[in-house]
Amino acid sequence: MLDVFDPPLVNSFQLLKNARDSNERKVRDRVRRYENYHQFDTIKVSKVLFVKSSPRQGETILRLTGKKVIALVDDEFEDLELWYPIYRVREEGAEVHLVGLTKGKKYIGKYGVPAEAEFTFEEIDTSEYDGILVPGGWAPDKLRRYDKVLQFVRDMHEAKKPIGQICHAGWVLISAGILKGVTVTSTPGIRDDMTNAGAIWKDEPVVVDGHIISARRPPDLPPYGKAFVDALIAASK
C-alpha cells in the first residue's frame, strides 16, 4: 500500500499545485493587461478561473438622452401598462415625470403597485416635454375629467409630439377630441367609443398613426414600448 507521505508522491502533488498556481497567475495577468479595454465577469470554481468578456457598459448609446416625457397617473391604473413604458423610455436615457392631481400622493394600481406623483398638473408646461404616456386600467376614466390633462393631450397633438395610449387610455384622447380620422387600436371593450369619436379602429397589437401610438393590452407592451421609443427618436430628427 502506498504511503501518502511517500516523498515522490508529495513532490508530485507539489508540482501539480505549482502548475495550477502558475496558471492562475497567468490568467490574472491577462485580465489586468486587458482591463482597460473590456469589462470582465470573473467566476472562480474549484480554484479554476473562467473569464467572460463584454464591451464596457459605458459605451452603450442611450438614444433618448435629453428627452423628457410626461407619464399621467391616477388610482386604479393598470400596473404593467403604467410602469413598463416608463422603464422602457428611461432605459433609453429619457427623463420621465409621473404627473397626477396631487403631488406626493401614492396612487395605487389595480393590482396593488404604487406610483407616487412627482408633479401636479399645474406645475407642468408641455412645451418643456417631448411626449406623453397615458396608462390603461380604470385611471383613464378619472384622468379624462381633468381639463388640464385634456389640454396636455391637445398641446402634444398640435405640436405633433408622441402620444402613447394603451388599453382604456383611448378614453382620454376621446375626451380631448383628437381622434377623428386617426387609425388606432385599444382594448376591444372600448372599440365602439373609439369609432364613435371618429377613429379608425384596428385589432392589432400596436398601431402607429403619425405621432399617436396605441396598443391593446399588456401582452402588447414590448412592441408598444419600442414603437413609442422610435416615435420619440423620429420626432427629434
Could you provide a short overview of the structure?
36% of the residues lie in helices and 22% in strands. It has seven helices and 13 strands.
Describe the structure.
38% of the residues are buried. Residues 1-6 and 34-55 have low confidence and may be disordered. The protein has helices at 7-34, 79-91, 139-143, 147-158, 170-176, 191-196, 221-235; strands spanning 39-45, 48-54, 68-72, 95-100, 106-108, 114-116, 119-120, 131-134, 163-166, 183-184, 200-201, 206-209, 212-215. The chain has a 7-stranded mixed sheet with strand order 7-4-3-8-9-13-12, sandwiched between helices. The chain has a two-stranded antiparallel sheet with strand order 1-2. With 237 residues, the chain is an alpha/beta fold. The radius of gyration is 27 Å and the shape is globular.
Throw out a few tags for this protein.
237 residues, alpha/beta, 7-stranded mixed sheet, two-stranded antiparallel sheet, 13 strands, disordered N terminus
Number of helices: 7
- Spatial extent as radius of gyration: 27 Å
Uncertain residue ranges: 1-6, 34-55
Main sheet?
7 strands, mixed
The share of residues in extended strands comes to 15-25%
Q: What order do the SSEs take from the amino end to the carboxyl end, as H and E?
A: HEEEHEEEEEHHEHEHEEEH
Mean pLDDT: 85
Please give the structural blueprint:
Blueprint: H1 7-34, E1 39-45, E2 48-54, E3 68-72, H2 79-91, E4 95-100, E5 106-108, E6 114-116, E7 119-120, E8 131-134, H3 139-143, H4 147-158, E9 163-166, H5 170-176, E10 183-184, H6 191-196, E11 200-201, E12 206-209, E13 212-215, H7 221-235
Parallel strand pairs: 3-4, 3-8, 4-7, 8-9, 9-13, 10-11
Antiparallel strand pairs: 1-2, 5-6, 12-13
Helix pairs in contact: 2-7, 4-5
